[in-house]
Amino acid sequence: MSRVLTNDGSMNMHPGPMYYNGVYHLFFQYNPFGPLFSNQIYWAHSVSHDLINWTPLDLAIAPTEPFDINSCWSGSATILPGNKPVILYTGINSDNQQVQNLAIPKNLSDPYLREWVKYTGNPVVKLPDGIQPDDFRDPTTAWLTDDGKWRIIVGSQKDKTGIAFLYQSEDFINWTKYDSPLLKVEGTGIWECPDFFPVWVDSMNGVDTSVLGPKVRHVLKVGLFDYARDYYMIGNYSPAKENYVPQSEFTLGTLRYDYGKYYASKSFFDPVKNRRILMAWVNESDSEADDIAKGWSGLHSFPRSLWLDQNQKQLIQWPIEEIELLHENEVSFEDKKLEAGSTQEIEGITASQADVKISFKLTNLEEAEELDHSVVDPQLICSAKDASTKGKFGPFGLLALASSDLTEQTAIFFRIYKSSERYVVLMCSDQSRSSTRNGLDKTTYGAFVDIDPKQEEISLRTLVDHSIVESFGGGGKTCITSRVYPTFAIGDDAHLFAFNNGTESVVISKLSAWSVKKARINIEETISCTS
Ligand code: DQQ
C-alpha cells in the first residue's frame, strides 16, 4: 500500500489536508534537498480522488519571502464561504521568528490548485509580546461562530506552560489575539500542530469545523514536542465566553490518538462521505545515516475516520473504507482454538502488505492474574513483559512481519488482568525483535483498551505495510503505530501468525485477512485540467 509520499527528501508533518471540488489535497513539510530535516522546509503537495492513490504536484509553498525565508512550517487549510480555500502557515522570518502567513490559490479554476500565492501583507499574525521567537506556530483550520468572526488557535508555550492562543478575525487578514488563551497547561512544554474540531455526541459521522451547539463536543488535540505524542481532550466549547472546558484535566496520562510513532496529525472534514479524517506523520525508527542511505525519510499514516465513542469518553479511529479498493485474496476462519504456547500461520495473503482483523474469545477469566498496581504505566508493563513472557491470559495476538523461524517478529498482543473487581485489557506492540539489525529504535509501545472482556470479544485490526504496522485494538479504541525494518521477514519471506503465549488457551472467534495491493503513489501523471 506504501504511503511514502516523497521519493526523495525528508517528509514530516503534513500541515493541511483538505477536500476541494472532488479532489483531496495533502500538503506536507518537505526538504527537497535531502532526506533529513533542514532549515529550508517547503510545502509539498499531493492530490487524490480516493485518499488511496496520490499524485505528486509541484511544491506548493517555498521559503522565498522575508516572512518565511527560513522555512515554511506547519499550518492548516480553511474553506471560506463561496468555497474558497485559504492556507495559514508558520513562516520562519528573516529574524528567525515564527510568524503566521496567509496564502491563497492562484487559480481557483485549476482543479488541482497547483499554484499558491502569498498575501503581500504577511505576516497576518505576529509573534506576541513575551513569547520566544521559536515558540509560536502551527495555526489551525479556522472556525466561524455566530458573531461572524473567524477563530484560529496557534500553538505556543511560555516557561514550559503549553498554550493554545486564540485569535479572531472578521476578514481573515486582520487577526486579534483574545486576552486569554483557549487553554493552557503548566509543565507540558510547547503545544505543536494543535487541532480543534467538533464531534457529534450521537453519530459516527464527521462534523464540519464550524458546527456548534448541544449535539457536539469539541476535541482539542495538542502535540507535545518533548514527547512527540499527540494528546487529545474532549470538552465543551462556548464561543460566547471563548473558553474550552475539557471533560478531564490534562495530564501525561491523557488520551492519545496513537500510543506508538504517530505525530503532528491533522484532521479535516470530508463532505463527500460526511466524516472526519485524520492523518499523521510517522517518523523513522532508523538512524540519520540509514535515511541518507535510503534517500528519504518519513511516512504518512493510513487515513482514519474518527468519531466520539458512544460512552462520550474517548474517540474511535478506524481505517477509511477505501482500503477495500486494495483488498485481494481474502482468507478467513472462525472458532479456532489457540492452545497455550501455539502459533497459527495465516497463509494465502501477502504478509508484507496486509490487512488483518482478528477477534478472541476467552473463558474462565476469573483465573486472570492480578494487575500489579505498582506499575500502572502500560508502556512499562509491555516493555517489561514482551511477547515471549508467559502470562495466564496473554500474550496473545499477531506476529506481523515475522520470519519463518520467528527470529524476526513484530508482536501486537493483549494481556488480561484482574484489578479490584474489574478486568483490565492491556495492548502492546513489541518491536524488540522486529529486526536483527542494530541501531534502530525498537521501543515497545503499550496502552490499556477500555473494553470489558466479560461483555465483548477482544478485537484487533492490523495494517501491515513493509516498514509500518498500524494496529487498532477494541474496534479502534486504542491505536498503536510502529516503524520496523526487518532484514529477513521482507517481501515473500514475511509471514503472519496468530499466537498465544499465555498458559490459558484462547479461541480465535473470527479472522479475516487480505493481501493489500500497492497503491499508485508518487507516480507523475499528465494531469489534464479537465480531469
Ligand atoms: N515540526 C514542524 C512545526 C511543527 C513541528 C516543523 C511538529 O511546524 O510544530 O517541521 O513536529
UniProtKB/TrEMBL annotation:
What residues does the Glycosyl hydrolase family 32 C-terminal domain cover? 327-515
Output the Gene Ontology terms for molecular function.
Answer: hydrolase activity, hydrolyzing O-glycosyl compounds
Gene Ontology biological process: carbohydrate metabolic process
Keywords noted in UniProt = Glycosidase, Hydrolase
- Domain Glycosyl hydrolase family 32 N-terminal: where? 7-319
InterPro entries, from UniProt? Answer: ConA-like_dom_sf, Fructan_Metab_Enzymes, Glyco_hydro_32, Glyco_hydro_32_C, Glyco_hydro_32_N, Glyco_hydro_beta-prop_sf
Translocase recorded as keyword: no
- Key word Hydrolase present: yes
- Recorded family membership: Belongs to the glycosyl hydrolase 32 family.
Its recorded name reads Cell wall intertase CWI2
Organism the protein comes from: Artemisia annua (Sweet wormwood)
